């Protein structure tokens, strides 16, 4: 069976490519459909605002925002241990790398400010940590039905 391919260089926004938003560490097809790509574009608009505000307030000018995981096919999600209802499956979520607890809290605060100021809701803002003590920020925004779920895990 032939594997589907994507244009990894395709820009979803000024600083985010389709390749970056579909990268995975597991060996499985991870090709989004048109609906998922549109969701990724919406998500990237939020990520661009986060990146811009971070750099205006705390950054060294033009620091990148690094996405560890965004879109996941059902097989990729299963292989990485994601929940069956994950927003990653629809291209609505990204796990964002942070350099410690302080940056995690500042990113979350910026996203809450953006939501309040723009009157746009998000679905999930989860401050997460693994057993090894590494932090990341899970952020999701759906086309509709956003729950504004905020949690520290």
Protein model, in words:
It contains four helices and five strands; from the N terminus they run ααβαβαβββ. The protein is α+β, with helices and mostly antiparallel strands. α2 packs across α4 (about 100-120).
Distance between the termini: 40 Å
Question: Looking at the structure, what is the overall shape?
Answer: globular
Strand count: 5
Ranges where pLDDT stays below 50 over 5 or more residues in a row are none
Oligomer: single chain
**Helical residue percent?**
25-40%
Radius of gyration based on Cα positions: 15 Å
Largest sheet, strands/sense/barrel: 5 strands, mixed
Number of helices: 4
Q: Give the ordered list of helices and strands.
A: HHEHEHEEE
Look at the structure and give the mean pLDDT.
94
Strand order of the largest sheet: 1-2-4-3-5
Strand content: 15-25%
Structural class: alpha+beta
Please specify the SSE layout and strand pairing.
Layout: H1 18-22, H2 34-57, E1 67-69, H3 74-79, E2 93-97, H4 101-118, E3 124-129, E4 135-140, E5 149-152
Parallel strand pairs: 3-5
Antiparallel strand pairs: 1-2, 2-4, 3-4
In summary, what is this structure?
With 153 residues, this protein is an alpha+beta fold.
Give descriptors for this structure.
single chain; 153 residues; alpha+beta; 5-stranded mixed sheet; 4 helices; 5 strands; 35% helix; globular
